[in-house]
Amino acid sequence: MTQSFRESLGGYDPNAGRSAHAADKPTLIPVPSLLRSLLTEHLDPGYAAAAEATAAGKRRPRWQNWAWQLAGALLIAVVFATAMAQARSTATGVRETQHALAGSVRSAESATTDLAARRDALAAQVGAQRRSRLEGDARGRQLLDQLDDADFAAAATGVIGPGLTITVTEPGGSQNLSDVSKQRLPGSQQVILDRDLQLLVNSLWASGAEAVSVGGVRVGPNVTVRQAGGGILVDNQPIVSPYVILAVGPPNTMKDIFERSSGLQRLRLLELSYGVGVQVSAADTVTVPAGSVREVNFAKQIGQ
Questions:
Q1: Domain presence at residue 294
Q2: Low-confidence ranges of the chain (pLDDT < 70)
Q3: How far, rounded to the nearest angstrom, does the alpha carbon of residue 86 sit from its chain's CA centroid?
Q4: Residue 124 confidence (pLDDT)
Q5: Which residues, 6 or more positions from 140, have their beta carbon under 8 angstroms from its beta carbon?
């Protein structure tokens, strides 16, 4: 390596430390340089020490190397065994907690079902008493007609009549979906989301439906269709595939309009892309149940 090249790299300067006042007797002061050492000393000092130890016969015996390797392997095995034991003990506790929570949920669901049945029975008794008290005169019958109209608008009464039945079924096999729905539910086979059923229900209303139910739950003014994790809730009640949507109304007219609606077009796209099952049929008799009876805040008898 030439002197000019070393100077350009900022390495050792041969003129470094030379006294300008004593030109006849220059004094050189060695200046260490990291770049110079990197360019001239290519081997790590540890390699040289190891080579010297080997040459002097001070190399570590082979059995010592095996002992250290065996100790390391035993240490790794102990760590893995401890981790597995902890995981098993934790899994047992998690399973017990899950069973306890599942039992509590089933008990709460049973109690809720019993209370809902009692509530509906009491509401039916109240309705019967109200009707028997008001049917005696013209004023009472007029009031009953107004109450019936209000109950129908609030989805508080069951409806039977001609209409449409729409059955939507999730695909049977897992597919590699890439849309936003699968990004929200990784590893799931669910394709139908709450917004799909919402669009479907709105399309039925726009097609002339007079009463609609989703999964056996009446859709009324205070009812929502929303996503909860991997499930769909209608009025806070879980529904599962196949999703059956019933709509009471003029079947022929309603079907013609519904065939061109955005809700059915969305389902047809999912059917073509992901294998979702979609079936639309007209029927002479469709039964839509009554919705949940809402809480009565106060009441008083007329005339007092």
A1: no
A2: 1-35, 37-38, 41-43, 46, 53-61, 173-189, 293-299, 301-304
A3: 29
A4: 81
A5: 133, 134
Phi, psi values for residue 300, rounded to 5°? -150, 155
- DSSP string of the chain, one letter each residue: --HHHHHHTT---TTTT--SS-SSS--------HHHHHHH--S-HHHHHHHHHHHTT-PPPHHHHHHHHHHHHHHHHHHHHHHHHHHHHHHHHHHHHHHHHHHHHHHHHHHHHHHHHHHHHHHHHHHHHHHHHHTTSHHHHHHHHHHHHHHHHTT-S-EEEEEEEEEEE--SS-----SHHHHHSTT------HHHHHHHHHHHHHTT-SEEEETTEE--TT--EEEETTEEEETTEEE-SSEEEEEES-HHHHHHHHHTSHHHHHHHHHHHHH--EEEEEEEEEEEE---PPPPP-----TT-
CA-wise closest residue to 205 among 243, 153, 258, 251: 258
pTM of structure: 0.57
How many alpha carbons fall within 13 Å on the CB side of residue 72?
A: 6
Q: List all residues 6 or more positions away from 3 whose beta carbon is below 8 Å from its beta carbon.
A: 14
- What are the tokens at 155? 């989805």
Which of 97, 119, 153 terminates a domain? The answer is 153
C-alpha pair distances (Å), 134 with each of 124, 153, 184, 251, 294: 15, 21, 54, 35, 22
The total number of structural domains in the chain stands at 3
pLDDT of residue 261: 94
Q: Which domain holds residue 8?
A: 3-55
Q: Could you tell me the two tokens for 76? A: 């790794």
Whether residue 28 is found in the same domain as residue 107: no
Task: For the chain, state the CA radius of gyration.
Answer: 41
Cα angle 109-110-112, degrees, rounded to a multiple of 5 = 65
Taking the C-alpha atoms of residue 277 and residue 270, their distance in angstroms, rounded to an integer, is: 9
